[in-house]
Specification:
The complex is a heterodimer. By secondary structure, chain A is α+β, with helices and mostly antiparallel strands. Chain A is about 30% helix and about 25% strand. In chain B, about 40% of the residues lie in helices and about 35% in strands.
Chain lengths: ~775, ~220
């Protein structure tokens, strides 16, 4: 049912940019309400300690302090956050212990940065000063940091009632790995270690909670990626009707995953506090708090092996891994399940065995950060393939070609389950074309045969790398949208997902414009305001362009239907002869037989007279879309880099990213997503690592010490497109939000090893750093 | 984090030992100490103002002295916490006569740091702690020499310890010295400052306004109207 598309697929500049660039966009910190108070949180310095007592009496005396609350004051309202994702009982043999976060610490501190008390005062300065007045008495306990030591008997326990630090245990099997291994010509075993990184959004978290006791309305501005679940949950938590609660996620300066969490302690506490005080309360997180208290991700230790035939064909892969979930696990198994779903990557792997153990530690909670466990899986497979290629004497590009899932094998069923607890199925794709395109764009053959030998003879350490990867996207359950033709002839639309830079205001406008024949600049979209649309889940897992976009498409198509039906009556012509263009409905071939959409909208909403039974007023429709399962995108990245073996500084000479995310709604926005994801991927490779000491103290909780790639590190990126539309939704889209991030560490490792060919270097960890590379080079021998 | 070092005192070992075991002297030697009381034979409690880079605040702490072998050695166990975070550590101190009337103090220990000190002050901790200890020992030595001189002259001890500001300045100076340890780095710093000053001067001198300026008041930035 694809009609000719005028706007979808066009490289349009964004509707929202003029506002963002001239300071006319609302962010949470712009909200300023009469009588507004400010909050500051007292956070624990210790990562693991028993709270013996907390004395806030001195803080209460300070002038300007309106209230100080601890867990005790919250009384019956103090409760653990709800678990977001519990493994269903249908999954056999899964061990899972649910332990969720608390609003304020009651007896035991489990994370350095966990809030102990909150001060509400007339200014943030006074509130922070009052924090120093609070006297706490804690008994420090040994911190659980090392994943392997955490599981040894006698280790301190993060949750005393559990008897161990094992949060979950799960085994997945495809085929029979042991049998495959027995037939293999080569088996490679390695230990691969991946460490934590932060999301590092430009805007930290922020909240304004406001309870108006006269109108009995609770309004919350929140930098959340999921305003609807936050509204539903907080309403239920505090005994309010969901219709009394309005959650607004305005413009948000970057989400990247951790801003979707139900609920951060601050969300719970400040909602409760405004209900007590009847006044608005604002809290804007500072950068150090963000490092300590916002969710993180990536910590895993893998013992992995791969079994191959002499020609490089993979017979099977197996890995046992420990996944660090932090002190609590509200997000269930989402991240490690993604790792399992991507450990076979884009390849035809007939046998697979994976044993997952999730471990509690005294570190911040782990929930998805752009990539959400996928980068780890891809890193595993790509590293093992590269090592196999070296041993078998096969070119890295060639070994990948030999193993890719062929284009005629779709839908490809993996026989394991994914993060949605549904069977992992790749719906469509042409992985060969994607890989070939990346190779062609970077000039792989020419570089390896001509340029590299010449540069090496000059003494330069230049390396090339190329990797293939998949990305599961577009998961359900569903999203919804409403489209309305206004009497002005312009269009307004609303959807439940929030926007943190994904360009929804433009890409969704393009979809609507194609359906109803207006200019996308005349479409005004509201996202992330529960009073405008209150059914849906949120922005995560690269699903906006799939699930929300298709809901927008369905709603716009329904409105188109209404337009045609009414216009047919008004213009006295059959629907098939009507055209929608430039904001008007015209009888094909004529010039005068037409009516503007605005006038039609007026006619659709009469002030007098009778309407036919079953008519809905106006030209408006609401529609929902839920996919059968998540569409799988794929891609291939390649890079050429030069490394100085004395300073360890890396210079990326060229970077090629080829992306197949099905139908492209707006290539400019897609490229923006790839660029942004890549910057994080580069950080995950060589610059960003959260360093914890053995007491659970974060040693680099500032941007001076936690290195986020800047303009001098991020290279020029050449983006290529392939399009295999997904059969799972009418638009044929697949997600692309995380694609830029996922393959980068694997690619970086390959290219770096290739550059340092004269050293005995195996990169089995991420992230690296210049220091760490120096250590690795000096441990190894020069060949 | 390991801490170790040595310091040469200008007096005999017994005198140094007595200083180290005197809470009033210790309180004076480390400016920023707001109070230091001996609560038992080998235990002290006190509060101290701490400043390390951007992190500042009051620490409340306990010091326990153990394994005393006067006047040779002792072990110090320190526990402190406050707004800047917490610090716990164990240190061993050894005094040895040098034969020429001076005493060499050797110290080594392990410190665990947490809170703001660890997360924001991490890179500065090493240098700052060395400087604080070093300046403290210098102060102690000052007291020691003043006492010895007073003993010789038969008069009251006259010694003014450095003020908190002087102390903090000393720490900052030590940290800067370590950061710009190499002469090249120091020259680079001077060159950068000079270049920036030149650019600012150039821009100010060239600045024109009136027709091109959106401002109502027409003033060039050198202050002339």
């Amino acid at each position: 049912m694809t009609k000719k598309r005028k706007y979808v697929g066009q490289r349009m500049t964004r509707n929202e940019d003029p506002r963002l660039l001239t300071g006319k966009a609302l962010f949470v910190d712009d909200v300023d309400l009469p009588g507004m108070l400010h909050a500051a949180f007292l956070r624990s310095d210790y990562a693991h300690a028993r709270l013996r007592s907390i004395d806030v009496s001195a803080a209460r005396q300070r002038p300007g302090v309106v209230a100080v609350y601890t867990a005790e004051e919250m009384g019956k309202d103090w409760q653990h956050g709800p678990p977001l994702v519990i493994p269903p009982p249908t999954l056999k043999g899964v061990l899972f212990h649910t332990r969720t976060q608390v609003p304020l610490v009651k007896d035991k501190v489990r994370i350095s940065g966990e809030p102990l008390a909150v001060v509400i005062a007339t200014s943030r300065y006074i509130a922070e000063d009052a924090l120093d007045d609070i006297v706490i008495d804690v008994e420090p306990l040994g911190a659980v940091i090392d994943l392997e030591k955490a599981l040894e008997p006698g280790a301190p326990l993060v949750h005393d009632d559990l008897g161990s630090n094992l949060a979950a245990h799960l085994i997945q099997d495809k085929g029979d790995y042991e049998a495959a291994k027995a037939k293999a010509d080569l088996v490679i075993l390695r230990r691969i270690v991946i460490d934590r990184g932060a999301a590092g959004a430009m805007e930290n978290r922020g909240l304004v909670t406001s309870w108006d006791s006269k109108s009995q309305q609770l309004t919350i501005w929140d930098t959340t990626q999921a305003p609807i679940p936050v509204r539903n949950g907080l309403a239920a938590m505090f005994g309010l009707s969901a219709n009394q609660v309005r959650v607004i996620a305005p413009f948000v300066g970057g989400g990247f995953g951790p801003k979707i969490m139900m609920y951060y302690p601050e969300e719970m506490v400040l909602t409760w506090a405004t209900l007590q005080l009847g006044r608005p309360i604002k809290w804007i997180e500072d950068r150090r708090e963000n490092f300590l208290a916002m969710n993180q991700e990536r910590g895993q230790i893998h013992d992995a092996e791969i079994a191959l035939e002499r020609d490089g064909r993979i017979l099977g892969m197996s890995h046992a891994f420990l996944h660090d979930t932090g002190a609590y696990d509200p997000y269930g198994l989402t991240v490690p399940l993604n790792t399992q779903s991507h450990a076979m990557s884009a390849y035809d792997v007939p046998n697979y065995h994976s044993e997952l153990k999730v471990v509690f530690t005294n570190r911040p909670i782990v929930s998805p950060v752009r990539g959400a466990g996928r980068p780890q899986g891809i890193f595993l497979m790509e590293r093992l393939l590269d090592l196999a290629a070296k041993e078998l004497g096969i070119d890295p590009l060639e070994i990948r070609r030999r193993n890719l899932i062929p284009p005629d094998a779709f839908p490809y069923e993996h026989k394991i389950i994914d993060q949605a607890f549904a069977p992992l199925i790749f719906d469509s794709g042409n992985y060969q074309d994607t890989l070939d395109k990346a190779a062609a764009m970077i000039g792989y053959e020419k570089f390896v045969k001509k340029d590299q030998p010449r540069l090496r003879a000059e003494g330069k350490h230049v390396g090339i790398g190329i990797v293939a990867f998949v990305e599961t996207t577009g998961v359900g359950p569903y999203e919804g949208a409403r489209v309305t033709i206004e009497t002005s002839g312009k269009v307004s639309a609303a959807t439940g997902v929030g926007t943190q830079g994904q360009g929804h205001f433009t890409s969704f406008a393009q979809i609507i414009a194609d359906q109803v024949g207006v200019d996308p600049r005349d479409v005004r979209l509201v996202s992330g305001d529960t009073s405008q649309f209150h059914w849906g889940t949120g922005t995560f897992a690269s699903r906006g362009a799939v699930v929300a976009a298709n809901a927008v498409h369905a709603a716009a198509a329904a409105v188109r239907g209404k337009i045609l039906k009414l216009a047919s009556k008004v213009l006295n012509a059959p629907e098939e002869e009507l055209e929608l263009a430039d904001g008007r409905v015209r009888v094909a071939g004529t010039r005068d037989q037409s009516i503007s959409l605005g006038e039609l909208a007026v006619r659709a909403n009469p002030l007098r007279g009778a309407v036919e039974p079953g008519t809905e007023p106006g030209l408006e429709a609401t529609a929902y879309f839920g996919p059968q399962y998540g569409a799988t995108a794929n891609g291939s990245h390649a890079m050429i880099l030069e490394v100085d073996p004395e300073t360890m500084m890396v210079d990326v000479k060229r970077y090629v990213a080829v992306e197949d995310c099905g139908t492209v709604l707006n290539p400019l926005i897609l490229e923006g997503q790839v660029h942004g994801g890549l910057a994080l991927g580069l950080g995950n490779s060589y610059y960003e690592k959260l360093v914890y000491d053995e007491n659970g103290q974060l040693l680099n909780a500032s941007l001076a010490d936690y290195l986020i790639p800047s303009a001098t590190e991020v290279p020029r990126i050449e983006v290529g497109h392939e399009e295999t539309p997904s059969p799972l939704n009418p638009l044929g889209t697949k997600g692309a939000g995380e694609a830029g991030t996922i393959p980068v560490p694997a690619l970086f490792a390959q290219a770096l090893e290739n550059a340092l060919y004269d050293h005995d270097l195996e990169i089995l960890e991420m992230p690296l750093s210049p220091n760490r590379l120096f250590e690795l080079l000096n441990d190894g021998r020069q060949k | 984090m390991r801490i170790e070092g040595e310091y040469l005192f200008g007096g005999p070992r017994q005198a140094v030992w007595e200083l180290v075991r005197d809470p009033d002297v210790l309180a004076m030697a480390l400016p920023g100490t707001q109070s230091l009381q001996q609560v038992s034979e080998s235990e002290y409690e006190g509060t101290m103002n701490v400043r390390v880079g951007p992190v500042a605040g009051v620490f409340a702490g306990r010091i326990v002295i153990s394994d005393e072998v006067p006047p040779e050695s002792l072990t110090l166990t320190v526990e402190g916490k406050g707004a800047p975070g917490f610090a716990t550590g164990v240190g061993h101190v050894r005094l040895s006569e040098q034969g020429d009337g001076t005493t060499l103090m050797n110290y080594d220990g392990e410190v665990q740091i947490g809170g703001k000190l660890a997360s924001v002050g991490q890179r500065l901790i090493d240098t700052a702690s060395r400087s604080i200890i070093g300046q403290g020992l210098e102060s102690l030595n000052g007291v020691l020499l003043a006492r010895m001189e007073a003993g010789v002259k038969g008069v009251e001890v006259e010694y003014t310890p450095p003020s908190e500001t002087q102390f903090a300045r000393g720490v900052a100076r030590d940290m800067a010295k370590e950061m710009f340890a190499s002469p090249q780095a120091r020259w680079a710093l001077v060159a950068i400052v000079a270049a920036v000053a030149m650019v600012i001067g150039f821009v100010l001198g060239r600045q024109r306004c009136c027709e091109t300026s959106p401002m109502d008041k027409c003033a060039d930035l050198t202050g002339n109207e």
